[in-house]
Write a structure and sequence with these properties.
mainly alpha; flat; 2 helices; about 0% strand
Length: about 50
């Protein structure tokens, strides 16, 4: 199934933010980003809607 163009843009925005946080060099921001991504993925498997 092909993705919609808006889906690509949202994905690009998330990747861009990941890169921005990594390049900032702030370990607190990086850790928080990684933790939230992990939690979001785990919660999305539990709460399917």
């Amino acid at each position: 199934m092909a993705r919609k163009p808006s889906s690509y843009l949202y994905r690009l925005a998330r990747r861009s933010r990941d890169l921005e946080v990594l390049l900032s060099g702030d370990p607190k921001k990086t850790a928080r980003r990684a933790k939230n991504k992990f939690l979001g993925r785990k919660l999305s498997r539990i709460f399917r809607w």
